[in-house]
Amino acid sequence: MTTLDHPARDGTDGPARPTARIPFPVVDEVARHCLQEEEPETVHIEVHLPGRLDPARLKTAFTDALRRHPRILMREAAGPWYRRRYEWELTPDPDVEVVLFPPPDRDALKHARDRALADAPPLSASPPIRLEVVRDPEADNTVLFLTINHTALDGPACLRILATAAELYGGQDNSPTAPPMRSTSEAPPVGDTPSGWAPPARVAHGTPEPSPGNGMLVAELSVPHRPKGAPYTVNDQLMVATALMISHWNREHGAHPRPLRITMPVDDRTRDTDMPIGNGTRLVEVPFAPEELDASEMTALLRRTADRTRALKAQSRPQLGHGAALLTAPVVPVAWRAALTRGLRRAAGPWTSTTLLSNIGRIPYSLDFGEDAGRAHAVWFSAPARMPRGLTVTTASTAGRLHLALRWSRTLLSHGDGCHLRDLFEHYLHATEHATESAP
User: Fold this and answer.
1) Tag placement on the chain: N or C end, fewer CB within 10 Å?
2) What is the residue-wise DSSP string for 65-122?
3) Where are the beta strands (DSSP E) in 260-328?
4) Which residues 6+ apart lie within 8 Å of 256 measured at CB?
5) pLDDT in the model for residue 131
């Protein structure tokens, strides 16, 4: 439902259209309760283009794209402490300059990545996103950095906005490709899995850095080979590689073997222009027992993982589970619920999943900006990596390549640790290819 504020004025003493307000959905409210300045909840999208963009044309195209998806033009509405809900206030136009052109320098990409992790667009200004256009002096091309306040929006929704902007800028068709065909057979039962009541393994501490916040490393890899008709997907190969990477890392650092639980976002939205904009994914947790994580039994591990992910995806449940829906019921002032939510989050820290693997999959849009800028040849995403998880793995494939982003809390890991984790991930992802050679 939409509630309306008092009618505004249009500047000529005549009535203007009232400002629409939308109550925060469950995901947005929980994220809003748990904001931290030390580790902002940002999503970063990085798009590499072979050519150059015209600044004025891009600003016009991106602003028009925002208006074509008006749900993104919003800010948090002010309200008294005793209000029952947070509300989004929709705006007809951006409140701030959304498209920015930082001055070029030798470390422009590094600085842009640092800003994407450390500087979240405010919720008080519409829209809660920022697009930076950066020239890569080494490759003489253009990199788009889209920074998103994750309290309001997620990566796939904002990628849809960018695809609309590309079509308006370059005049090329950016309609989404059809999703890959999947088996329509009934999902198997989840079967024997590690107990959800036992606290899962944590990522072992490496060499923490003195400064707070997140660090990140991006890499370009080959998309893992998967035989036609194999009973598992590339997503299952990525899931297994992530589990084996963490298991190996923890063994190296003397951690006692414990079950792993890996959070996996599931997105059932369409990708066309009617795609719902906001935080639209639901979260499921894929469990692994310590004795299952044996790289010498790779084929069996892949099949078991495929059965679990297929069964979990088929289950119908709220985005954050039934408990979150109850916790955000507007029966008491939202400030009271905020204090309760933060306390429960701290208490539930030991039961938080080990890590998060967000596989965007094949980018469904060409992201073609026309003759001058060209078509995207690399797209990276990264998800927030606050403690107690402290590490997230995000993957996407573009132009036949796999683009991996590892993001970590600096209170847990350093850049050198990130490089080692990348090498372990690549090693085990390659190992899944060897297993598939003997699969029926």
Assistant:
1) N
2) HHHHSGGGSEEEPP--TT-S--EEEE-SS-SS--EE-PPP-TTHHHHHHHHHHH-PPP
3) 260-266, 282-288
4) none
5) 98
Check if 20-170 and 214-360+390-436 are the same fold: yes
- Tell me the pLDDT tens digit for each residue of 317-354: 766 766 677 677 787 898 888 888 889 888 888 999 99
| Amino acid residing at 188 | P
Q: Strands of 297-377 (E only): list them.
A: 355-362
Provide CATH code, domain 20-170: 3.30.559.10
How far is the C-alpha of 108 from the C-alpha of 59, rounded, in Å?
A: 20
Which residues, other chains included, contact 197 with Cβ-Cβ below 8 Å and sequence gap of 6+?
none
Handedness of CA 56, 57, 60, 62 (dihedral sign): negative
Pull the structure tokens for residue 148: 């998103």
Residues of the chain with pLDDT under 50: 1-15, 184, 438-440
Per residue in 283-305, pLDDT (tens digit) is 999 999 999 999 999 999 999 99
Report the distance separating Cα 365 and Cα 423, nearest Å.
29
Q: Which two tokens stand for residue 22?
A: 């939308």
For the chain, the domains span: 20-170, 214-360+390-436
Q: Identify residue 270 by its one-letter amino acid code.
A: T
- Architecture field, domain 214-360+390-436: 2-Layer Sandwich (3.30)
pTM: 0.91
pLDDT in tens, 89-111: 999 999 999 999 998 888 999 99
Q: Which residue has the tokens 């967000």?
A: 358
CB 314: neighbour CB atoms within 10 A?
12
- Do residues 358 and 159 touch, judged by C-beta distance below 8 A? no
The token pair at 435 is: 């297993």
Residue of 252, 304, 46, 78 lying closest to 158 (CA atoms): 46
